[in-house]
Amino acid sequence: MVTHDFEKRTRQLIDSLKGICAAYGLGNDGNEFKIITQVFLYKFLNDKFAFEAKKIRPDLAQGESWEQAIANLDADELEMLQLQMGPDTARLKPEHFIAYLFGRQNAPEFAKLFDDTLRDIAISNNDIFAVKTEGGAKVTLFDRVSEYITDTAKRDDFCRAIINKLVEFSFERIFTQKYDFYAALFEYLIKDYNKDSGGKYAEYYTPHAVAKIMAAILVPEAVRGMVSNVSCYDPSAGSGTLLMNLAHAIGEQRCAIFSQDISQKSSSLLRLNLILNNLVHSIPNIIQGNTLLHPYHREGKALKKFDYIVSNPPFKMDFSDFRNELDSKEHRERFFAGVPNIPKQAMDKMAIYQLFLQHIIHSLKTGGKAAVVVPTGFVTAQSGIDRKIREHLVNNKMLAGVVSMPSNIFATTGTNVTILFIDDANKEGVVLVDASNLGTKVKDGKNQKTLLSEAEEDHIIATFNGKVAVEDFSVVVSYDEIATKNYSLSAGQYFEVKIEYAGLSPAQFATKMQGFTGNLDKLFKESAGLEQEIRKQLAGLRYE
Prior knowledge:
Elements: H1 2-23, H2 32-56, H3 66-71, H4 75-84, H5 98-103, H6 110-124, H7 126-129, E1 131-133, E2 138-139, H8 155-166, H9 179-190, H10 208-218, E3 230-234, H11 241-250, E4 255-261, H12 264-276, E5 286-288, E6 298-299, E7 302-303, E8 306-311, H13 323-326, H14 353-362, E9 364-375, H15 384-395, E10 399-404, E11 417-423, E12 430-434, E13 440-444, E14 447-451, H16 454-465, E15 474-477, H17 479-484, H18 506-543
Parallel strand pairs: 1-5, 3-4, 3-8, 4-5, 8-9, 10-12
Antiparallel strand pairs: 1-2, 6-7, 9-11, 10-11, 12-15, 13-14
Helix pairs in contact: 1-2, 1-8, 1-9, 6-8, 9-12, 10-11, 10-16
């Protein structure tokens, strides 16, 4: 009940911050999400500091104000307290606290004080909380948020409205909550900035069902708690939903997260997600940049190899500006199956997922595992890059299987999707699951969306992990069988064709079979008679 109350109050805080933005002309503004996420994060870090400080020094909670108690510490005591907090907590000074700003909100140029405070927190914590670009520049934690208000006369009031809202309640009692709480919180926080508004990078949030299935198959329940000291990578990370699910399955302190994404927005959302999910230690591995052209993560000069890779890459996108650069000797080993050509009529239909998929295969450690969302057409294409990639996976025996999902599992795209599971250690028994008939269709705004129930998700996971053949749902096939079926990964092509005889007695079944035999005999006799008649007519023609 306490958790539910806090989730409700946290949502109210988010809603009220959005209300303030709307009141000052920033509703649906491109900068609104920057303000909301940064202000929310400031509040979160402030209360996390309080939580950790009181845990280390319970005496700080005894007085009326923990903020004042910390302000009364001398410099050495404060430094010692900060050192004991560990790397996940921002290093704050008394003048950074929300209570400090709240007490000075009537000072002249309050917006400047507010912005200066956020910037000072960002700069003094840059080594831990900054995201890097592929060129090495650091993207700091906070901007000068009041400057998004174009009317300078309104900036002080805007910042006062924010600080008055932040001081109303504390996050402190939620820091003991588990992953699912923060996942729901994050989804609510970004829901209004997660719409397909026509931008190139609109898919910031992969559906829960897809993320859950990927994590549960890559890290089955039986091995949870046994996997440790592993690297997890997403070359098109978005806001990090897939990585968060994977890290949660492994254990946040048992893995290191690595990512790259070309979108600034995605990188800032991913950083927020890492902070919420106790993965601050991985923020230095978050890179904003072009993964295909400038892959950042390396070991020496060679590209880094990872234990686990997850990805929901963009399927089609215009990359004609650097297409020929990718199709060069430098990238030939990585893009072993080739670089897609530029379609003459529609450059934005270039199949960029083929490049991400090859990059993932190249970036996998020996014995590593990956799960990638691909268009369902990939599993049966009989020529081109798709076919070459499938041949590579089968011939090198590095395939776990596929799960073909229901249509409209993503509300923003009508493309049918399949999850491809790669496993370099799986040398026999490939699982092909056709889950396309599962789910319930619901309306999501103007779009139709298919939702899987928890039981359906668990059925997919148990079938795959148990390598179970289920009639008209799943098959387990050998690599040789796949090769003989033109490397098709479509489960339906391996299902047995069955004659329906349910409910028939043995005698009825025998009669039915006799009927089939009789019909066949009759057809053969008829065809033989027809053949004789044709021969006679031909002979007559020759005679004439």
